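Reply to dn_fold:

You asked what the input looked like. This is it:
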Amino acid sequence: MNKFIFLLSCMLLLSLFSYSQLGVLKMIGQDAEKAKLGYSLFLAYNINASEAGNRVVTLELLDGGFFPDKQEYEDRLIGYISIKAGYRYIFNEEDKTGFFLEPQLGYCKVVRNREEALSKSGVAAALIGGYSLQTDSRGSSLCFGLKYEADVAGKEYTLQSIGFRVAYIFSLTRR
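and this is what came back:
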């Protein structure tokens, strides 16, 4: 447990100082027993859809997840890459601070490792729920969230995960 808290603290500090968007993932469903705790790196671009900034169209230009394998398994899913679009609804009428829900839909590529890496393309669907904290008057925000993602690229190339995400969303425009 202490190792998990230390790792989470390090990822949070790294995320804050590099404007990165990071996550920790746990595979669920098919082949979940074959993978350890996974890692995620994502790059999202937000477009305000309301004057207050509490309605946001999200373009997730890159979302990659990697799951290290357990030693006794050789045939396992090792990860995914997806591109998605979503709509974030923040339950606050004044600004970007508050709880939010964000459904997403897009394209994915799921990689399976056998003797050689094999991949298939498919559909990615995700639902993120969390808390957004506006950090300055320009509209930048710090987001914490839980994400469920299903990447469906065929019977043997389906991957489901639940993850914890930390993102600092830097706004270049004023509200």
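Confidence is low (pLDDT under 50) at residues 15-19.
Hope that clears it up.
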